[in-house]
Amino acid sequence: MAIIAELRKSNPKVVILLAKLMPSVYIPKEDIEKYNTRLESLATDNYLDGSPIVMVDLYTDFNNNMSDLSSDSSDGVHTNQKGAKKNADKWFNALSPYLGHSDYSTYSTCSSFTYSSWSTCTDNIQSRTIVTKNPFGCTDGNPVLNQNCISSPMTVSSSSDSNARNQTNILPCASFDYSSWSTCSANGQQTRDTTSSSPANCVGGAVPVLSRSCTPPPDTTPTVEPDRGQATTNTITASPNPCLIPAGQSLCASTISWSTTGHPDASVWVSSAGFPYTLLGNIDSGSVNYPYITSSGATFDLRATNSQTATLLNSVFVQGETPVTIKNSKTANTATVVESKGFWQRFFEFFGI
After folding, report:
1. For 20-66, how does the pLDDT look when each residue is reduced to its tens digit (9 = 90+)?
2. DSSP 82
3. What does the alpha-carbon distance between residue 5 and residue 296 come to, in Å, rounded to a whole number?
4. Which H helix or E strand runs over 238?
């Protein structure tokens, strides 16, 4: 609260963006949700029309609501490439309305609205305004801002019948006849007009349905076929391999590089020391330094899509090797060798056996 007051003191029109906490494997889910609920209350209690507080929801749908820790993070806390893009999109949608953003092609269409109360019926029309739009930052949609109404009991004089019907009541509309629906537009909308109403000369009552959603016609833009003669290469390498574990430590690092052709959603998965596979990268080509290789080694699988069960394109195993110091008691000479599958062969060679 004190920070908000200081910000508004410096700039009464400041726009404050307040982000919810992301899920974490180290903090109980109920504690994070309780904290985020307090943030929402803080934003609501301190909201001003001239200085809004905008919530940025980094919690919802992160790691599929914690059901899949490898979906948006590499370790259950920090975002991976996919999680970082998801958060960046949420920040972008929150910031864009306040930064004079001119490209609205990425905004979604509004699906629902909250409104002010209807105005007093004037000239048989009531109006209202939009208070909020959903989802946040959306555009267009089909808000209902006007409706027919009856201002007051209305009568008209009948000059043709001066006896029984000096006055005729105007009734509210009950139904309508329409023109045919228009062709479905590219934005998925059809429109039509009323041709008559029932009862005749009615006012207000039922609201005519003049638009509806539809399926746009298929896009007939010609597509360019890819070159079928292009060779397909899917490689994954590690350098160094094996990697040397420093003395007194248990881990070493290796740079994993991969490249694919025709697999834009390719992914790399790693399994080390018998643990389940986790997502290392989700891009067709890339390079990542992996510093968690043990003496048991690590396996890196290159998959066709962002799924651990997708088609295996290639794989590489990286061995972590531990230095071992051997002392010859006869000559007092020492030597350091690397413990690997050829250890005994090197042992015998050292002692001349």
Report:
1. 988 887 788 888 889 989 999 988 888 888 888 999 998 887 766 55
2. H
3. 56
4. strand 235-239
Task: Please give the mean pLDDT across all residues of the chain.
Answer: 79
Q: Which two tokens stand for residue 201?
A: 């000369």
Listed in sequence order, the residues at least 6 apart from 117 whose beta carbon sits closer than 8 Å to its beta carbon are 128
Contact by Cβ (8 Å): 288, 256: yes
59's tokens: 């919690």
Domain positions in the chain are 2-98, 112-153+175-213, 235-323
Give the amino acid at 100. G
- pLDDT reported for residue 326: 57
235-323 domain in CATH 2.60.40.10?
yes
Exposure of 278 in the CB half-sphere (CA atoms within 13 A) = 18
Q: And the tokens for 81? A: 């490439």
Q: Is 345 in contact with 339 (CB distance < 8 Å)?
A: no
CA 37/CA 125 separation, integer angstroms: 41
AA identity, residue 151 = S
Buried/exposed code over 73-97 (b: 16+ C-beta within 10 A; e: otherwise): bbeeeebbbbbeebbeebeebbebb
pLDDT computed for residue 283 by the predictor:
84
> Which pLDDT belongs to residue 85?
87
What dihedral angle (degrees, nearest 10) is formed by the CA atoms of 272, 276, 279, 280? 0
Is the confidence at residue 208, as pLDDT, over 70? yes
Of residues 166 and 254, the one with the higher pLDDT is 254
pTM above 0.70, yes or no: no
* CA pair distance 14, 4, nearest whole angstrom: 9
Query: Which phi and psi angles does 209 have, rounded to 5°?
Result: -95, 105
What pLDDT, on the 0 to 100 scale, is given for residue 158?
43
Q: Which CATH class is domain 2-98?
A: alpha beta
**What residues contact 206, with CB distance under 8 A and at least 6 apart?**
172, 173, 174, 175, 176
Checking if the pLDDT of 140 tops 60, the result is yes
